[in-house]
Structure formats: C-alpha cells, structure tokens
Amino acid sequence: MKKHNFSAGPCILPQEVFQEASQAILDFNNSGLSILEISHRSADFVSVMDEAQSLALDLLGLKNKGYKALFLQGGASTQFLMVAYNLLNKKAAYLNTGTWSSKAIKEAKLFGEVVEVASSKDKNFNYIPKSYSIPEDVDYFHCTSNNTIFGTQMKEFPPTSRPLICDMSSDIFSREMDFSKFDLIYAGAQKNMGPAGTTLVVIKEDILGKVSREIPSMMNYKTHLDKESMFNTPAVYAVYVSMLTLRWIKSNGGLAAMEKRNQEKADLLYAEIDRNPLFKGFAAKEDRSAMNATFNLVDESHKETFDKLWKDSGVNGLNGHRSVGGYRASMYNALPLESVQVVVDLMKDLEERI
Ligand SMILES: *Cc1c(COP(=O)(O)O)cnc(C)c1O
C-alpha cells in the first residue's frame, strides 16, 4: 500500500508521474525504445529538454523576460560554488539562515570576500533575520528561500539594487511570487520538482560576463546556456521526470493552486501543533515553512509511543533532522491533504492515550 510520505528529499512526487515515468522506461513515446537507451541528442529527448525548460520559465512567469532555464548536474551543492565562480568578483553578501546557507557561504569564500549580512545561528536557525542592510558595493546578494532542515521560510525578500540570487531547492514551484525580482534561482530537483540527479538554474543572462577569472567549461553558466543544457550528457531520466512533474503542476492549476493546497496542509498541521499540549513547534511562528514543518515533543519520554504509532500507520519520513531533533513533516506539492490529516489524527490519538 502507498505510504504517507513526508520524506524531506528525495520526496513524494505525483502518482500519475510515477506511472507515466515507469511506462517510459519500457517504451518511450511508442518508439520501441526505453527512455533509458536513447541518445540525449535524439529528437524525442531534445523535445523533453525544451519542454522542461519552457515549463519552468512559464510556471515562474519568466517567459520572454531575459531569463533562461538550465538543467544541470551536481545538485544545489554545486550551485553554491558555481554562483560564486561566475558572479563573485570581489565581495558578495549572504544571509545565513541555516545549514544550506552556511555551506553556500563556505564555498563563496573560496572566490572572494563574503559579508554575512545577518545570521539566525544564535537560536539554532529557528527564525529568519529581518533587519539588516545589504551593502551597495557587493556583486550580489544570496539567500535561501526555504530552510529545509529548520522549517523556516522567507515570506519577503529584501529590496536591493544588487543582483538577487536565491537557493529555492525546497520550495520552488510551491507558491506564487514575483520571480522577476530574482536574477538567479537554483533548485536541486529532488525536493519539489522531480527525482534526484538534476538541478534547475534559472538565470537572467545579463548578469553574466562580469568576472575577470577564467572559468572551467563545466563550471561556466555560459557554456551551458550556449549549448542549452546539452554541453555534455544531461541527466536524461531526471529531466524527463521533472518535465512530467512540471506538466502536472501546470495542469493542476499552476503555482496559485499549489500554494493554496500547500497552505491548507500547513494550516492543518500547525493548528494541531499549537493546540496539542504534547507538542511544540520549533520555528518562529511568523517564519514557519509551508513545506517543512518542524516540531518536537514537549516530553521526550513519549517518543517511543509516538514513533510506533506513526510507523504502524503507514507514515514515512517523519523523523526530524539530527540538528533539530523531534519531527519534520515535509509537505511538498504532491503530498495529499489526507496524509496530513493522518498525522494530525495520530497526534490526537497520542494525546488521548496519555
Ligand atoms: C537539499 C538542499 C540543498 C542540497 O541539495 P543537493 O542537491 O543535495 O546538493 C541545498 N539547499 C537546500 C535549501 C536544500 O534543501
């Protein structure tokens, strides 16, 4: 039986996507060939890549606005260094909201000076810093829209005259926003967009060409833009499954509909976290993530009972990250509201037993 999958990533994808994706392994487009055995330069796959890139820009409202979409490899972690390699001349500003921001900062320091404009490390990253200023003389400002591990999410982005770069790995395509205020957005596919193996980079082309260093071909955005993500063999299957997921998002109402569903799920779970005396939320209320809800037991001695309850009820992936402990419910686009209701009922069930 299908489990209620709260895994933080790789994560749940729509069941229709799993079905279509598995069919394509056996016979892709009635071609008599598996998607796994065709050339990435075949017309069939080139059209998958084109559609994936086009859907990504379309869903973000960035078509014909000077942006291109790339599907690269190496995960969001490679973007930590590619961003700096391509854009950091002297100095860049970073907002530190958690493990992933910290890792991005570490890589950027290899290329120049990093100004950490603010950090929420003082409280184990349970909030998003609000009052800080971004120096005018930096090459760009980098932030993380959703902190997958700590369960915080930026609801607003600071106005800045400098290029705005954002790691949206865990909330891309989950909500509506004016994406045109960003100059570069990147996201590892495996949190909300597809399987592991490919990384979406959406880039405003006019921010490139401003650093003086030599950039190795594979690390150079220009290489990939010139070759439309086909400089070398792309992650064919991961791009295909991402394309199917983007189609699913579009045919299910786009980002407005995703946001509405995601908010309903988040409201349902957070209401129970706040109501149930056995649990407490980890993230500051105003910064709570609609994607990853982090919460703990008030009395850890109930852990064994609660863990057994949810594991016996077909729930998967509710364990918190080791740096927060407790529980983390990742409620990406494809997770149905009914799965959240199951966890809420289990929380109530625990309260009744104790
Ligand atoms: C998971 C995650 C990453 C790392 O992604 P990889 O694709 O594993 O390199 C980076 N940033 C955020 C916000 C993440 O959630």
List keywords for this structure.
single chain; 354 residues; alpha/beta; Aspartate Aminotransferase, domain 2; Aspartate Aminotransferase, domain 1; seven-stranded mixed β-sheet
Strands, helices and their partners?
Elements: E1 4-5, H1 15-26, H2 43-59, E2 67-72, H3 75-87, E3 91-96, H4 99-108, E4 113-119, E5 141-144, E6 146-147, E7 152-153, E8 164-167, E9 184-188, E10 199-204, H5 221-226, H6 236-251, H7 254-275, E11 279-281, E12 292-297, H8 303-312, E13 315-316, E14 327-330, H9 337-353
Parallel strand pairs: 1-13, 3-4, 3-5, 5-8, 8-9
Antiparallel strand pairs: 2-10, 6-7, 9-10, 11-12, 12-14
Helix pairs in contact: 1-6, 2-6, 3-4, 7-9, 8-9
This protein binds pyridoxal-5'-phosphate.
Residues 9, 75-77, 100, 144, 148, 167, 169-170, 188, 191 line the site of pyridoxal-5'-phosphate.
What does it look like?
The chain is of the alpha/beta class and 354 residues long. The chain folds into 2 domains: 15-251, Type I PLP-dependent aspartate aminotransferase-like (Major domain) (Aspartate Aminotransferase, domain 2), CATH 3.40.640.10; 254-353, Aspartate Aminotransferase, domain 1 (Alpha-Beta Complex). 35% of the residues lie in helices and 17% in strands. The protein is built from 9 helices and 14 strands. It has helices at residues 15-26, 43-59, 75-87, 99-108, 221-226, 236-251, 254-275, 303-312, 337-353, and strands at residues 4-5, 67-72, 91-96, 113-119, 141-144, 146-147, 152-153, 164-167, 184-188, 199-204, 279-281, 292-297, 315-316, 327-330. The strands form 4 sheets. It has a 7-stranded mixed sheet with strand order 2-10-9-8-5-3-4, sandwiched between helices. A 3-stranded antiparallel sheet has the order 11-12-14, covered by helices on one side. α4 (99-108) links the parallel β3 and β4. α2 (43-59) crosses α6, α7 (254-275) runs parallel beside α9 (337-353) and α8 packs across α9 (337-353). The longest helix is centred in the last third of the chain and has 22 residues, at 254-275. The model has no long low-confidence stretch (mean pLDDT 97). Bound molecules: pyridoxal-5'-phosphate. The site of pyridoxal-5'-phosphate has 12 residues, from α3.
